[in-house]
Amino acid sequence: MAGLHPCCDPTSPSAIWEGTPAGKIIKIDGIETYVARPDMLDGRSKVKLPTLNQESSSRQQFNRVILFLTEGHGIYLPNAQLLADSFAAHLGCDVIMPDQFAGQARLDKDQRPFFPPGKEPIPETVPWTEDKDDPNYELRGIRVPLKENTETSDVYPFRKPPWWQKDESAEEFEAWKGRHEPAVTDPLLARVVKYIHEEYGQDVKIGGVGYCFGGRYVIRLMGSGVIDVGVVYHPSFYTMEEVRKLVKGKRLAIYAAETDDILPPKKRRETEDILKETGTTWTSTVFSGTTHGFSVRGDLTVKEVRLAKESAFRGAVSWFKEWL
């Protein structure tokens, strides 16, 4: 890697989608976790979340849960929270989105779009979605004209977290990534899975959705038998050995970008070949005019990007409804 990849760079341009997240942050065995529930989205009501083992019987009425694993920016990126809300609304089940980076996501919880005092711009409204059934639709504001091209817009620059090294090198980024490899992340996610089983029952069906970095861990959890149905968006850093652990009976949907140096066409096609060999039920979709990160940080004023983001989201909803 020649330099810091923009997929994990909080100073890189990234559109902040319009909408007010309705979920809540709880702690699961010390892990900060964003939880979205259908009842939270009904009139945007304030719902008190139960702690572990409280109201367990009421939560166990749900026979499925979505485990949402984020890309490198983590659970405090507003777009990720809005997506979690939308999955909860459309699937009618709870969505559990843990901080798989243990407090060192590329954006920390105090991260917000930042401008020097007196320099705050008056932003144009960025539409959230064309889908009027989406729970965030009414809060998205007015529409702006679509740009029928694939240019990238610098909507809001991100402020770096306090722990960020100035002018971080590729070596420093690799060191960060190394701190979140399977040896560290797998045990953390095991604690979250344990919570899900205790809170929702041992027979709960867990669906996994993962973006970029999180996509690898959805694949790993499928290979270990924790998840049978998964959806991954431009997944990153996974190995072919991890893909080979997916066998007949597993169901995986992949949504990829046309231009993605982390998931280039060669690796994606090799992945598809292995899925075919193992007998996995799978689908793979590539959207033209998109780059890595389109499904969670794309500029929704660009027609191609918005179409891809919405199509990929609806595809995931359909995939879970059919198989989970």
Automatic annotation (TrEMBL):
Keyword Metal-binding assigned: no
Domain of life (superkingdom): Eukaryota
Gene3D superfamilies per the UniProt record, alphabetical: alpha/beta hydrolase
Keyword terms of this UniProt record: Hydrolase
Residue span(s) of domain Dienelactone hydrolase: 63-322
Pfam families membership: DLH
Region (Disordered): 114-134
Molecular functions (GO terms): hydrolase activity
Protein name (record): Alpha/beta-hydrolase
